[in-house]
Design goal:
Layout: H1 2-7, H2 11-17, E1 25-31, E2 39-46, E3 52-59, H3 68-88, H4 93-96, E4 100-101, E5 110-111, E6 117-122, E7 127-128, H5 136-152, H6 171-184, H7 194-201, H8 204-215, E8 222-224, E9 233-236, E10 242-245, E11 252-254, H9 256-267, H10 285-299, H11 305-309, H12 311-332, H13 344-361, H14 363-372
Antiparallel strand pairs: 1-2, 2-3, 3-6, 4-6, 5-6, 7-9, 8-11, 9-10
Helix pairs in contact: 5-9, 5-10, 6-8, 6-12, 8-12, 9-10, 9-12, 10-14, 12-13
The protein binds adenosine-5'-diphosphate, 2-acetamido-2-deoxy-1-O-phosphono-alpha-D-glucopyranose and magnesium ion.
Length: 375
């Protein structure tokens, strides 16, 4: 992965930058953030009166998002829709939604001479992006913001959205892919991770849970974010509110429970996603409660009683699915998620399975907490 970043540090990045209309003189360009998918850079420009302007520049992951043009159409449509609502609500559309900076040819992306797709966003100043919860109140505020995001998009015409990754949270289908990866064992790693494989195989019912209900027509498909981890939200430094939901690549029809659940798996964990000391990892019930309260409030009465009841299941399914995806990638030779050390995906999968096991022991408590807010 580092190699890819260095490759763009020279001529190519100059070519890319030259095809956007950034204001001022480029002072610095540096790799940015901890996303697992795109290559993100922070560009710092200085204009004549020494004022600095910053931009986010991203090389989109074409291997994962195979239809970048359609993806950017989603992003443009969703952000213009949000912009209108933010203005109606008296908010600041420059900071409360992503703002795409078009390329010089007017398109919302630039295709470089090697065929890679790039896009740029206004950098949202005076905000922080957290990889772990530092203050419980911040987690509550992130919940309100993710809930609000869903509420604002409640009447968005879902059928007009492109499905940027087919079956993204089809956990049942991902279980089948996992079994194929174990079978194929292309890297010869399966024998060394037998415990982790058995953990997944023993929970096929978790993988099937939402798919079965969807088939029976018992769940509502909504416009959801589908990647609601804490580092996909910018927190305002002054107000400490979740000011802007970012990383809109996976906005698609989905389940409210999954948006809730993905936030819990990442933010209610007492350790980092790749913590190697599993004794430090559990699902914190205080954080779980704060997020439950914030998310339900943020959704502003849009959630059905049944959806609220199923929130703990969303947490378990998303955590299980994510662990299974990390393990699948480990078995397939680390081709999907960016890794920064040899067994990174295996380490990541272990934290997720530790969290699932912990949620199983806390199941009644989680159900009780959710019940309190289900009126
Ligand atoms: P990935 O899909 O790789 O996770 P993201 O779109 O989430 O990519 O961006 C990676 C990181 O870059 C984010 O976690 C955040 O720290 C930073 N980032 C992205 N967009 C912005 C923005 N508009 N303003 C400030 N920071 C941003
Ligand atoms: C990826 O792009 P990023 O880093 O926000 C992944 C999510 C996983 C997450 C695990 C498009 O999110 O689905 O839950 O890593 N995004 C994609 O940290 O696969
Ligand atoms: Mg991200």
């Amino acid at each position: 992965m580092e190699i890819r970043v260095e490759m763009v540090a020279g001529e190519l990045i100059n070519e890319v930058i030259g095809n956007f209309s950034f204001q001022g003189v480029l002072r610095e360009s540096a790799p940015w953030g901890n996303g697992h998918i795109n290559d993100t850079f922070l560009l710092t420009y200085q204009n004549e009166d020494k004022k600095e302007t910053r931009y986010i520049l991203q090389r989109m992951n074409k291997g994962i998002f195979t239809q970048p043009v359609e993806l950017m159409e989603n992003v443009m449509n969703v952000t213009s829709y949000l912009r209108k609502i933010i203005i109606e609500n008296g908010g600041d559309p420059e900071r409360e939604t992503l703002n795409v900076i078009p390329a010089k040819d007017g398109k919302p992306f630039y295709v470089d001479s090697t065929g890679e797709y790039w896009r740029s966003y206004v950098y949202i100043e005076d905000t922080t992006c957290f990889d772990q919860v530092e203050k419980p109140e911040d987690f509550y505020e992130s919940a309100v913001a993710f809930g609000n995001f869903q509420r604002m998009l409640a009447d968005y015409p879902a059928e007009t959205l492109h499905e940027t990754i087919k079956g993204f949270h089809d956990t049942k289908a991902r279980f089948a892919v996992f079994k194929q990866a174990v079978e194929a064992d292309v890297c010869g790693r399966a024998a060394s991770v037998k415990d982790e494989i058995d953990f997944v195989l023993a929970r096929e019912d978790v993988a099937d849970y939402f798919g079965d209900l969807l088939e029976k027509g018992e769940l509502i498909l909504r416009v959801t974010h589908n990647d609601t981890k804490l580092n996909n939200i910018m927190m305002d430094n002054k107000t400490r509110k979740g000011i802007c939901v970012i990383d809109l690549d996976t906005v698609m029809p989905g389940l409210a429970m999954n948006d809730f659940g993905d936030s819990i798996r990442f933010g209610a964990s007492t350790g980092a996603e790749d913590e190697t000391d599993l004794d430090k990892i559990w699902c914190d019930m205080e954080l779980f409660e704060l997020y439950t309260k914030g998310f339900i409030e943020g959704c502003g009465g849009k959630l059905a009683k049944r959806e609220i009841e199923l929130l703990p299941m969303g947490a378990k399914v998303m955590t299980f699915e994510c662990g299974m995806r990390f393990l699948t990638d480990y078995l397939q030779g680390d081709t999907y998620f960016k890794i920064h050390r040899e067994h990174h995906n295996l380490e990541r999968c272990r934290t997720q399975f530790k969290l699932v096991a912990d949620m199983e022991t806390k199941w009644d408590t989680m159900a009780e907490i959710v019940k309190k807010y289900n009126y």
